[in-house]
């Protein structure tokens, strides 16, 4: 049979049925598994057999979740983690040695940046950042001890787009591992491995869960790299709980339809905001006004669910806007069915200097909207009344 479409893989990838022939996959809450005899046990521990031994290593629910993500991302293998950050931590901890060096996009998730700046230096691993408009200059940042190029696209919160094909080419030329955090796009909108990425990381907490219930993370990619990450994880214990894996595997069944609708709503919200006189600018990858509109169209199926815009009047206006919001949530999550607004300059990015903030595109009045699945007219009405305040 020919390769199936991503929607079908998300629904029909399923672990073997049990003796009860259930239609929907059951939840396997078990910490360990039994062996037939002494020889079976010996061979299993010697990795001569592929089977479940202990749920820190593998579990049927985790395997199903990982296999779905692998099929959707076009990856060989993967491992599921308790959170997006444990996926980020374990991936780097498994692959890097002391004195290694990372070249990373400057616009990355806050905790990932804290990990690079404050935790990895304990092992003398350093990071050099490039600005999103400096991709062509990054070869100058590569050192003899550089091991990884790291990027997110679209970025948070300014929704800039990085050229993944170009970054992959540079990584290949210098024999580096290219890792992409694909959380904002999901495998439905963008498959970085197709553009040459070696590994893809997801925080499954966001659009993959999509309903703000559980934390989860996953790293997928080449079998060779995943084997190293697996051996690190199996001995250090960041495994995803089988319950969360069961939830997340169910969530993947509806990911394509949910993301499709999120993007449809987001484009309407972005178009409305662009026409509003109290808005200085709107950033959304699939608006013609976006600086990387052409690249976004090539790289992504749709524009994603995050819209960034600047309220006229700076930090105070941004805060006043948030205080006037009635329906949308003020929350730290994103990719939920519920629309969420945040004001990065006074919250997630408040610790940065103004100069660093502006370099990552975060102006005082910048507001980030994670557009949800409420009726789009109700989302727009709430944003509209708050903009009049
Ligand atoms: C949320 C997020 C993470 C971290 O994931 P958790 O599941 O919260 O640990 C990493 N990268 C990006 C882009 C995120 O949005």
From TrEMBL:
Domain of life the protein comes from: Bacteria
This protein's record includes keyword Amino-acid biosynthesis: yes
Cofactor(s) this protein cannot do without: pyridoxal 5'-phosphate
Q: What class of enzyme is it?
A: transferase
- Positions carrying N6-(pyridoxal phosphate)lysine: 206
Q: Name the chemical reaction catalysed here.
A: O-succinyl-L-homoserine + hydrogen sulfide = L-homocysteine + succinate
A Pfam match is Cys_Met_Meta_PP
Entry annotated with the keyword Ligase: no
Q: Which residues cross the membrane?
A: none
Q: What is its EC number?
A: 2.5.1.-
Query: What pathway does the annotation place this protein in?
Result: Amino-acid biosynthesis; L-methionine biosynthesis via de novo pathway; L-homocysteine from O-succinyl-L-homoserine: step 1/1
Q: Which residues form a coiled coil?
A: none
The record's similarity note reads: Belongs to the trans-sulfuration enzymes family. MetZ subfamily.
Official protein name in the record: O-succinylhomoserine sulfhydrylase
Species source reads Winogradskyella vincentii
Protein's gene: metZ
């Amino acid at each position: 049979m020919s390769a199936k479409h991503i929607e079908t893989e998300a629904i029909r990838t399923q672990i073997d049925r049990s003796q009860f022939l259930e239609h929907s996959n059951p939840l396997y809450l078990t910490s360990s598994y039994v062996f037939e005899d002494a020889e079976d046990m010996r061979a299993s521990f010697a990795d001569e057999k592929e089977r479940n031994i202990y749920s820190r290593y593998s579990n049927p629910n985790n395997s199903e979740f990982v296999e779905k993500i692998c099929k959707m991302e076009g990856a060989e293998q993967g491992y599921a983690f308790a959170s997006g950050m444990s996926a980020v931590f374990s991936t780097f901890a498994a692959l890097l040695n002391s004195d290694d060096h990372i070249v990373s996009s400057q616009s990355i998730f806050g905790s990932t940046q804290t990990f690079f700046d404050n935790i990895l230096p304990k092992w003398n691993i350093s990071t050099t950042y490039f600005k999103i408009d400096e991709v062509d200059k990054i070869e100058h940042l590569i050192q003899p001890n550089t091991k990884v190029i790291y990027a997110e696209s679209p970025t948070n919160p300014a929704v800039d787009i990085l050229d993944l094909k170009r970054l992959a080419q540079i990584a290949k030329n210098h024999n580096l591992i290219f890792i992409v955090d694909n959380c904002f796009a999901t495998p439905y909108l963008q498959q970085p491995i197709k553009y040459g990425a070696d590994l893809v990381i997801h925080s499954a907490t966001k659009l993959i869960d999509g309903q703000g219930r559980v934390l989860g993370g996953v790293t997928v990619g080449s079998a060779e790299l995943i084997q190293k990450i697996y051996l690190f994880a199996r001995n250090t214990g960041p495994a995803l709980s089988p319950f969360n894996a069961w939830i997340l595997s169910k969530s993947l069944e509806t990911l394509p339809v949910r993301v499709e609708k999120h993007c449809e709503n987001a484009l309407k919200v972005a178009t409305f905001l662009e026409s509003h006189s109290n808005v200085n600018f709107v950033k959304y990858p699939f608006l013609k006004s976006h600086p990387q509109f052409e690249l976004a169209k090539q790289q992504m199926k749709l524009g994603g669910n995050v819209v960034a815009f600047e309220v006229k009047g700076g930090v105070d206006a941004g805060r006043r806007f948030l205080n006037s919001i009635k329906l949308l949530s003020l929350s730290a999550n994103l990719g939920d069915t519920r629309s969420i607004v945040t004001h990065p300059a006074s919250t997630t990015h408040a610790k940065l200097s103004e100069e660093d903030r502006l370099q990552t595109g975060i102006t005082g009045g910048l507001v980030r909207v994670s557009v949800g699945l409420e009726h789009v007219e109700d989302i727009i009405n709430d944003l509209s009344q708050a903009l009049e305040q």
